Hints:
There is one protein chain. The radius of gyration is 24 Å and the shape is flat. 69% of the residues lie in helices and 5% in strands. The chain folds into two domains: 161 residues, no CATH class; 70 residues, no CATH class. It has eight helices and four strands, in the order αααββαααααββ. By secondary structure, it is mainly alpha-helical. The relative contact order is 0.17. α5 packs antiparallel against α6. The strands form two sheets. The protein has a two-stranded antiparallel sheet.
Amino acid sequence: xxxxxxxxxxxxxxxxxxxxxxxxxxxxxxxxxxxxxxxxxxxxxxxxxxxxxxxxxxxxxxxxxxxxxxxxxxxxxxxxxxxxxxxxxxxxxxxxxxxxxxxxxxxxxxxxxxxxxxxxxxxxxxxxxxxxxxxxxxxxxxxxxxxxxxxxxxxxxxxxxxxxxxxxxxxxxxxxxxxxxxxxxxxxxxxxxxxxxxxxxxxxxxxxxxxxxxxxxxxxxxxxxxxxxxxxxxxxxxxxxxxxxxxxxxxxxxxxxxx
Length: 259
């Protein structure tokens, strides 16, 4: 289902709650939204659990580090409360602990929203949607698409260069100076090949009548349907549901002010 949502509308559905979550400083609001985002990802996005865990693992470590540093170095508004435990000269209080957990959960919520969009969105359809719905210039859109398509080619060419250097007896670089020389040996041929490919693509597009005009026709029309608006409304409404539940349970905190 998520793959059929208009990519631009999906981007707004992810971006708006992410911006609103930045204003909340309590742990319950981002936790509720994190659970909701993960549930939507797995039940409607057809995303493999192992793949999702593998990608989100670095974000778990990053969120834990954010939470820990916030507990040890809280701001003035989050330094009060009873002391939970002490570590050397640092004291972790109830308020700093809550602020740290909140920051960690917010980071995970941002990561979950980003993964929901990335893992369920086709890059080509996203750029076409930006061009048709957001009126992004075709020159910029097709330029980004062409560059994105070249990335696997550049990786293959880099592997070929490394193997060619090894065959000719060029060993691995050791030290900063040798690494700089190695970078130049790789960068110059890769840059030359990139320029050749760019010229070929430009000539091919011109030969097929590409002028960069905005009033062009499209083989694949991207439309906004009712389900796209429903998707955005549900994601935004769920944020306010999370805020309401947090307020009812006495956890809501916005910019350090308890409600």
